[in-house]
Amino acid sequence: MILKSIKVSNWRSLLDEVELGPFSEGLNVIHAPNGTGKSSLFEAMRRGLFDAHHVGGGEISAVQPWGRDLTPSVTIEFTEGDDTWRVEKSFLSGKSAKLARLEGSSFKPVADGRNADERIREILAAEAPGRGLSKQEHWGLAQILWAPQGELHLGQISGNASESLKAALGVQVSGDSGSQIEDRIAERYLEFFTQKGGYKTGKSAAPIVTYQERKDALAGQLVGLREKHLSFEESGHNVEDARQRRLQARREADALRETVSETRSKAETYAKLKAEQSNKRDTESLTKEKYDNLTARQKQILETRKLITQLTESLKDKSSKLGELKKEEARAKESLSKKRTARETARAKRKSVTERQKLIETAREFLNQSESLEALDKCITQIAELKGQQSKAKDRLSSILAPTPEVIRDLRKWINKHEQARASLKASQVHLEITPENAIEVTNATNQSKTRIDSGKTVEFSGDDWVDLTVAGFGSIRASGPEGSSDEHRAMLNKAKKEIEKLAQPFGTDDPEKLQLLRDQVDKINREITARDERIDDLLDGDNWDSLKNEQTELKARISEIKKYYPDWSNQPPVLSKLQSDYEAFNQSVEDEITTAEDEFDQAQSKHSASDKAVTDAEAEVKLVQGRVDGATLQLEQLSEDGLNDEARKKAIEEALMTWQAAKTAADKAEAALKQFPDDPSKELSKLEKQLAALEDSEVRARDEEKTAEGLLQSLAAEGTYSKLVTLEEELAALEASIEQESIRMDAIKLLHETVSTCKSRMVASVSAPVERSATRMLSRIVGPRLGQLKLTGAFVPEAISPEIASSPVAIQNLSGGEQEQLYLVARLALAEVLAKHQRQLVVLDDVLNATDAGRLARLLTLLEEVSDRLQIVILTCHPERYRALDSAEFFELK
Amino acid sequence: MIRFIHTADWQMGMKASGLGTASEAVRNARLESLRKLVELANERDAQLLLVTGDVFEDNAVDRLLVRKVGEFLAKFKGQVFVTPGNHDPLAPGSVWDHPVWEEASNLTVIRENTPVELENCTIFPCPLKEKYSTKNPTSWIKAQDCSKIAIGMGHGNVEGLPDVEPDFPIPQNAAENAGLDYLGIGHWHSYSPYKDSSGAIRMAYSGTHETTKFGERESGNALLVEISERAAAPLVELLPTGKLKWHAIERSLESPGALKPILNELRAIESPESALVRLRLKGLLFSVDRQDLESLNEILDSRFLFGALQADSLTPAPEDDSWIEELPAGALREAAETIRQQAMHGADESDRAVATRALLELFDSKEKAAS
Prior knowledge:
- The structure holds two protein chains of two kinds.
- Chain A is α+β, with helices and mostly antiparallel strands.
- Chain A contains 19 helices and 20 strands.
- In chain A, the strands form five sheets. Chain A has a six-stranded antiparallel sheet with strand order 2-1-4-5-6-7. Chain A has a five-stranded parallel sheet with strand order 8-18-19-3-20.
- The radius of gyration of chain A is 76 Å and the shape is flat.
- The two termini of chain A are about 25 Å apart.
- The model of chain A has no long low-confidence stretch (mean pLDDT about 90).
- Chain B is of the alpha/beta class.
- In chain B, the strands form four sheets. Chain B has a six-stranded mixed sheet with strand order 4-3-2-1-13-14. A six-stranded mixed sheet of chain B has the order 5-6-7-10-12-11.
- The model of chain B has no long low-confidence stretch (mean pLDDT about 95).
């Protein structure tokens, strides 16, 4: 398409009719300041060509000038192929559309209304939007060739435009019908698969997924059902087993019952004999017991009588021995008392030892305190002497008035200044020396003073500016010098003099040397005072004078107190070593004496204890023997309570012996009868009964188990587990068959989709390569080789760059803003060149390259000039000066 | 003279895998055939109905089914004798514990190896009490001295059958050895008679009364047996009882249009509502036959009680370039060629099947895009 002219009215800020054209088939620059309507002009062209005249909605309403109910209108004249067309389109209230073709020298109507909308789209290979206004993807080739303001980047290229590019490149990837088939394949694929290639799940899940889920669920049920069916079969076996066990137990129990009956009869007989034997043995025991009792009583009576006699003898001996032991104990007790007194006497001497020890401590304290007092006295004396010296030094110091070093320094400074002023003053004055041969009288006219000068004497007269003298008899002499600064020097001289007087006045001399001597004297005294202060501090050793005095007083008081008790120590201080040796000797003798007394006491005490114990033991023995005598006597009385004498007792014993012997014979007979049985049949009976009970229990248990198993079996049989299993397995088999078929179908759909995609990608890659090369060359001319190869997607959209220094492609987003717009512009130009292969195409650039520097812009303009041989380029800008270098461009100012 | 029906292997409640939703219908058909069998027996004045095992597929079948079978048999005018088989052995919890067997006076489930004396004959039954055994179940029969017509009822594998394990083995001359006039046996689902040295049929598998699967021959019958007197040769007549027809068809395609005769063949199948059809195709698929293949699928899906097409072995005909040329030039053609190569030379059958299916999907997409 080539744009011839455009006329717009009532479009946003373009209230008045604006007409631009005819445009050059090469470069065109439409310029105007911001807000004048450049982009509105471009928008009107897009709406006029791609949107239906009857479109409604807020977006188209917004193109109406603010606050006016006017009809936005646009008229575009363009050529496409060999025809020249004029589109007249109005929107909103005055909506209309007309399409006319240049036939001869005038435009003839071709279509109007919706037909006109449709025809225009056909001419430009554009697509109708679903609803509302068209978007870039509906613009056909214009989505590549036209860059609206701020939308230079190329995000996507719709199918038709992409196919046009491919067609222009001479390669057919799919074709129109092929695209539809591909869409159908993709649609079919996405019906079952996700973009990542997995099966869809959830509401729109692929059937195979649903089948598989159902299969998994059934498999779970199947396991349970199979277990139940197995349980049914096992229960049958369990019933059979329990039945066999029950029958076996019954057979065994029946066989055992007869044996048990026989054994029970034997056991009863045995028990009867056993009872008889027991009774007879009891009788035997009773008679024997009676015999034994009688014999024992007689024996006991005799033994007791003998015992009483023995004990009475023993009691007499022990009583005699007890009396002797008591006497011995009294003697030991007396000896113990004496030894206790001796021990206490010896222990009392320890008090004297303690007193001697205290004397030593007191003597040591006395000596220490005396020594401390002596040292303290010496210290106090020294401090007192130093304090006296200090007082004298301070008195001497107060008598000397000495200047400070600063005063001396200032005095010296002013004396120097005074001397300098004096010398300067003299140098600035006029001097006249007179040495007369004869004495003369000179009158100084300056101060009218008269001076007599003897012969040969020299007198000098000075004046600031001159010296005016009158010499008697001679006349006057006037000497003058150069006018100068004597006043200033004099002022300084006076000031210095005053300062000197002021500084020296307190000290009576202005001689700095004398003053320095005074200063040195004062400094020396101060140093001595400081030294003595330090010495006093050393002597005080952290204390103060008062505390030392207090300590001295306290020590004196203590020593005096000790001397009160030990007056001899005033003349002769105690000797510690002698006191200590005396003490040790005394202490040793006392301790020896105590030890001896204690040993003797312990021995006496042991002796007394032994005597005392012997007495106690003897008393106990006497008491014991007495008790035994009493006991035996009592026992004898009890044994004799039967009232029989010894003869009568002997007769009774003989009768009891005969009775016992008779009972024993009867019992032996009964025992012989029992020995007919090898063992007690009741034991065997017990075992047999237990065996029988166990068999009966087994039978009962087996019957219970049988019933339980039968119950379970009947319950499982009633469920018809096999029939359920059959249904489930059939469904599972059907599902597995479906899954197998679905698996083939899904694999086929996936294979088809992937194979088509692979083939297409391969072909597209080969198609886009020339465009990539062209765009890369252009980019390289503008930015240099740094960015490397420009990569396009299969849909011709810039995707990345491959700089040589980078190991992998770099996303375009990583480039600077300027380089991004340059890259997208060259990509559009490269694609436009492809599309312009057979006919010139219109490229519209609305306010682009704002981030491009002047150097690169210049190279871009060169590029634009080159491609304008094949492309009509319309640039909309508010910076026309940037494009002035385009010599061949037509400039249109929008007013 | 005695006239009786010999039948076996009804396999009531059997699993019918691979038949999808038709499974239940196949099971129900077995009951229907039983009803027909009883009607035929009554019509043909059979005095006895001898069922030699495997009435049920398993002892744990639905108890309602057991009742139905019992009630059907109660409608027989003569006496019914049933011996349990290895699928429904006489064991605790078996179908034979069901009260239905005690409810009808003409029904007898034989539980012991004890001769049953009847007016015209003596029956020597061999009920099985377990699923597996290497013992000949008929070995106890000693009918040589029997004065009446001696009829045996057994269940097991006749020795000499190929690839059969010795499970309940029955000698081929078991009837002669035991002195039986006729030994009716069950276990195998196809009718198989065994003759004695004189050429008389002395032993026979009656076969199942209703075919159980594809490829099962000589099934769907019951036997009407008539024996005039002791030692006389039995007269055996096959009574068709089966309701369902099982068609297992296999065809190899070699040329374009080869599917049309198959379509006609399918359309010619009678009583399609009782027909189960399994069609296996192999060979070469031509592009022109795609529609016929679709039609085959439709017919099998909709016309029969059960229909299944197994066409995974088909591969696109290598000489048929229309698989490629009918597609728009460009990527699609290249893809079609790639897929066709895989369909012809894929690593395994599965790969080839997937590729053939993908090619069909491609053409399906093409047609849908055009419509």
